[in-house]
Amino acid sequence: MNYLLFSIILLLSVGLFAPAAPTGEHMVYLPVVLRPEELAPSEEFRLQITPNGWLLSSTFEPHSFVLINPAGNTQRVVQVSIDLSTAVFMDMVYDPHGIAGDLVAKDLTVDSNGPLVGFAGHSFAGAHHDGYDQLNLAFQHFDPGETFTFSVDVDPTSIRGVAAPGPYESGSVSGLELVGATVTVTFADGTALSGQTFRLPHSLGGSQAIVRSHLPLAPQVEVVGISGNTAVVTDPHQTLQIHTSSRGLVRALVIEGGLFTEGVPGGGFDLDPFEANTALTAREYEYFTNGGTMYLPVQLSRSHANGGLNMIVVVQENVFNYKGAVSPPIIVELQD
Fold first, then answer.
1. Cα torsion at 170, 105, 174, 42 (round to 10°)?
2. Distance between CA atoms of 87 and 16, rounded to whole angstroms?
3. Sign of the alpha-carbon dihedral angle for 22, 26, 30, 31
4. Closest to 81 in 3D by CA, of 137, 147, 148, 140
5. If DSSP codes are grouped into helix, strand and coil, which group holds residue 37?
6. 3-class secondary-structure state, position 248
7. Model's pTM, two decimal places?
8. Which of 103, 163, 155 has its CA nearest to residue 131?
9. Looking at the DSSP assignment, which residues form a beta bridge with residue 127?
10. What digits encode the pLDDT tens for the residues 26-60?
11. Residue 129 in contact with residue 91, Cβ under 8 Å?
């Protein structure tokens, strides 16, 4: 059984005011200046994946995908596309036929409110090792204030051909393992907006994307002393160099993954360097930045002999707690 997910929140500065350096016994507070685009009205949409689950939750379970058209919107939603190719765990695919991952299959199953939102069908796209990267859903009258839930099998391709749920329950894919997935929403007036999932606050295994315009750009991230987006290290203490174009709260998520292939035909299918197929632990750090370059210490982990693959992504929030685009994953393997 996997280790329980745990989060370490390093709260260095919070709220709508950023403290300047103290002088003597006095502290000066500088108000956050809101940019006009942050105040502009925008249509909004929310995607949640296994929002009430824990680390071993699975998209196979009912109500694992939750689509919300908030009551404050003015438009219907006509199409939603969810692309897993940008997720932090590589080679996670929709497996409606039980071919790409473990032997259990589940095509998209409507769990609630199909007639209410006028669900008009779905299709898969982006063929990937006999599974699919992208799921497209169509709606006839998905109005503001309505919610739609469904479930579908998602598996790592590395466990192709093994009995469910796979070694170390790697076939149970939670929203945490799909952090970074891209959702694109098309509204009735033709407007299309995109966003990416990030860890859902106060959730062990859930992720969420809030889709709207004028969200922060993805931070530029490097691990100090490391070139490129993959590396092998022996020191668990590393430092992130993060550059942002605006002020706001920065969140860094470090997910330790492991690769488990015991019992899989051929010892695992199409394995790539630095590939993991299940999450073991996670740490989340947050820091308020005024923009520019900052340095954030993080800790890597190796909680299992098959683990130690630490996937690092960073996102920035604006003052309304809307998260922007997720940085491309950096994978650092911690060896003994």
1. 150
2. 31
3. positive
4. 137
5. helix
6. strand
7. 0.88
8. 155
9. 132
10. 333 334 444 555 555 567 999 999 999 888 899 99
11. yes
